[in-house]
Amino acid sequence: MGFGDILLQAALLVLDPQVLLTALLAGMFGMFVGAMPGLTATMATALLVPMTFFMDPIPALAAIVSASGMAIFAGDIPGALLRIPGTPASAAYVEDSHRLALQGKLNMALGTNLLVSCIGGLFGVGVLIAAAPLLAEFALRFTSYEYFWLATLGLSCAIFIASADPLKAGIALLIGLAMATVGLDPTTGVPRFTLGQVDLMAGVEFIPAMIGLFALAEVMRGVIRLNHNAPPPPMPAGEGALFKGVGGVIRRHPKNIVRGSLMGTLIGALPGAGADIAAWMAYAVSKRFSKTPEKYGKGHVEGLVDASAANNAAVGGAWIPALVFGIPGDSVTAIVIGVLYMKGMNPGPTVFIQNPQLIYAVFMIFILTTLMMVPLGWAAVKASRQVLRVPSRVLLPIVLSFCIVGAFAMTNSVFGIVIMLAIGLLGWVLEENGFPVAPIILGLVLGGMFERMFMTSMIKSGGDLTAFFERPIAAGLGICVLLIWGMALLGAVRRMGKGRGTA
Q1: For residue 263, how many C-alpha atoms fall within 13 Å in the half-sphere facing its CB?
Q2: What is the three-class DSSP state of 306?
């Protein structure tokens, strides 16, 4: 069978009315789930799995691809409107997005998110099609040493994401890392810091923590304003065309789009990384190389461009190890692998030989659903603007209800709600005293991988620290981390010197 015949068969499979309708409905469902605080792209995918039992392979995969991609973008909507990230992948740049909205640039912020997300998604798909085997082989070379340095690099992002006070950002990061140590020790299996609570043996779930730090803290501030009859904060203006001014943003920052898309694809291709880590790292790199780093966190569109491109490119990147080697790139592709086995499409190198038309059909579905993101996203943004017209006395209880549902759904127990309430109160106290809360989430997300990979590496090397630099990729990542920390310390020393000179 020639390559042209394979593409024709794939196109006929994708253009089936059932496949197109399934992709559309799943995309609308993904938009809704992603826009709800705490309900993640993983949850959207998991909820669709029972329905895929009754579908053919292509409609089933179309539903999962469409829902997960739409949910990643939709998380940006409540972030801009209410400063509540809908998904963890939106948390990295929620401050900039909301500040832009308060400056009357809601349309530019969400329009930029939408179009750059589409571009990043198409970039990720392009790499998936062109270089899947090559990138997957590169990803398989990562051992515990490389993953340790990757996690360390991600944690270093907290220093660059921090606005004016790296010390407070470092303290917040340590709080997140301390929370990540709660539960079973990854090496010995011994319970740690559980206070005798069986529920804490599974650790502190970062979704309820994220809901508490962002959403619940925002609700508490709103309640305090109502009780003191304080004037409400200025609401984002949402009139006019959605894409007005977005073209200029894209023309000014083409390098950011390419850099964010490339980082997202590469990080997405690493098993266990995914869109969340891609967004944090792309935002940090963007701030590090920006000519105006002082504007980040205060309503700067440049960080949105990098991170929006990265988290959507990571969606396609995560499918690379899943399709080529059957290794999940993130939690969504872990579900996808199960669906592939269920449909008789065993992932691995042979799938490109035995069922090439099905693989190219998946590639076409990716392109179709990524392009579908633009009209569906436009409609979702238009509909979400009605939120701005709801009085605070009505809106705050509704948001709190969604917070409770999201926290409960992630743990399937009331304990998730308890975690949300406790960490929400902590986040409110920290923010009132000038501490950033984003590094806490970063510490929770990466803390487990950081500790697990360090302990595994130390056991393998017999405690020899030089083993962390013996492998070429690990050595490269390690040198990058040491250079980053060296530059951060040098900057701190220079600031101290200037302070003494002016004293």
Answers
A1: 27
A2: helix
The Cα–Cα gap between 12 and 254 comes to 35
Residue 162: phi and psi, rounded to 5, are: -55, 140
Of residues 221 and 255, more confidently modeled: 255
Parallel, antiparallel or unpaired: strands 183-184 and 191-192: antiparallel
Please, are residues 232 and 223 in contact by the beta-carbon 8 Å criterion?
A: no
CB 254 within 8 A of CB 305: no
Half-sphere exposure of 429 (CA within 13 A, CB side): 7
Alpha carbon dihedral 46, 51, 57, 63, in 10-degree steps, equals -60
What's the pLDDT tens digit per position in 363-399?
A: 899 899 899 999 998 888 888 777 666 776 777 787 7
Range among 9-18, 155-164, 237-246 rated most confident: 9-18
Backbone CA torsion sign across 389, 390, 393, 398: negative
> Pick from 136, 128, 129: which is nearest to 6 by CA?
129
Question: Side chain identity at 443, as an amino acid letter?
Answer: G
The single residue listed with the structure tokens 């962390």 is 468
Distance CA 437, CA 95 (A): 11
In the prediction, which pLDDT does 309 show?
Answer: 92
Confidence at residue 139, expressed as pLDDT on a 0 to 100 scale:
66
d(CA 375, CA 370): 10
Per the structure block, which two tokens stand in for 271?
Answer: 């098993």
Reading the block at residue 423, the tokens are 């960490």
Residue 82 is predicted with a pLDDT of: 78
The pair of structure tokens assigned to 250 is 């894209």
For residue 281, the Cα-to-chain-centroid distance in whole angstroms is 10
pLDDT of residue 349: 65
CB-neighbour burial class of residue 159 (10 A; exposed 0-12, middle 13-18, buried 19+): buried
pTM of the prediction? 0.72
In the chain, the amino acid numbered 349 is P
